[in-house]
Amino acid sequence: MLNRIDAALQSATPTVMVPRHEPFVPMAHTGHRFLAAADGLWLEARRAWLYLRWKLAKQSQVAMPYGAIEPVVQVQKVPGHLVEDFIAFAKEVCPLECAAWIVWNAVTNQCKLVKMVPTSVSNASVQFVRPALAENEHLVVDLHSHGRIPAFFSSEDNRDDCGEFKVAGVFGRVDGELECRFRLCANGLYIDMGKRWEGK
What we know:
The protein is 15% helix and 41% strand. The protein is built from three helices and 13 strands; from the N terminus they run H-E-E-E-E-E-H-E-E-E-E-E-H-E-E-E.
């Protein structure tokens, strides 16, 4: 018999066997769980703005009595002009860094750019107090700039992003030939989304 802590953990984030002889049913409610599939261990997550199914660990040595599934990444679309607005903001403050969120309202289906008010800022970092979101608002995209240096995700970014579900974007060389990188952050998993992203 499991103790109460283990029982609560397994109830909140269970591991589910993917059926071999009937269709796989995606999770219907907000949360995340692990999937034991024929080819290894997968992560499945749902948020109001996200559905994700992604392989975490591949295995082919042992025959697993489970079914097969395909990767899925479905993210709420955000207006491209909000990304352009952030780029303009980054150019205004360059060479200092800056940060902003793109927030989506699940009731109105509207997105807005929320510029972060820095508590500390330099050419190499920006820190801010996370704003409180209203009911039905969700952080979809977390943006920051690198001023005149290249676009990349630093070890500090990895620490900041490891416990969240969100899209992260970084813009570098904002005073010249602009660089950008996007990734989906999923509770410590990082999925590269390339150099341009507006959602799907």
